[in-house]
Specification:
Layout: H1 2-7, H2 15-27, H3 31-43, H4 50-59, H5 63-75, H6 77-81, H7 84-92, H8 94-106
Helix pairs in contact: 2-3, 4-5, 7-8
InterPro entries: BTB/POZ_dom, SKP1/BTB/POZ_sf
Protein name: BTB domain-containing protein
Length: about 110
């Protein structure tokens, strides 16, 4: 985060680093950093990280990111629902998982 604050640059960002920076940016209200991390997470959304990003977006109350992730999950529902990450989400945050699946019927 200090590197970003001094350089205004996020070089060679990995998704886990982006998610950590995203949380820190929210905590310290560094909105430009939060926006860059959110954009990175959106563009690097995959089957392997969708549940984690969904949980993160819900935790930080980022409705735009959450909506994108939920759409991705619904588009790839068979792959996501059969993953161990989805099982963990169902176990630890059943309301978020149910909210996401209910969107299927509201379309």
């Amino acid at each position: 985060m200090l590197l970003y604050m001094y350089t205004d640059s996020l070089e060679e960002l990995q998704w886990e680093t982006a998610s950590d920076l995203y949380v820190a940016a929210e905590k310290y209200q560094i909105m430009t950093l939060k926006d860059k991390c959110s954009s990175f997470l959106k563009s690097n959304l995959s089957l392997s990280n969708a549940c984690k990003i969904l949980l993160l977006s819900d935790l930080l109350q980022d409705k735009a990111l959450k909506s994108i992730v939920q759409g991705f999950i619904l588009k790839n529902d068979r792959s996501v629902i059969n993953s161990s990450d989805w099982e963990l989400l169902m176990k630890d945050n059943v309301n978020l998982a149910a909210e996401t699946m209910l969107l299927r019927y509201k379309e």
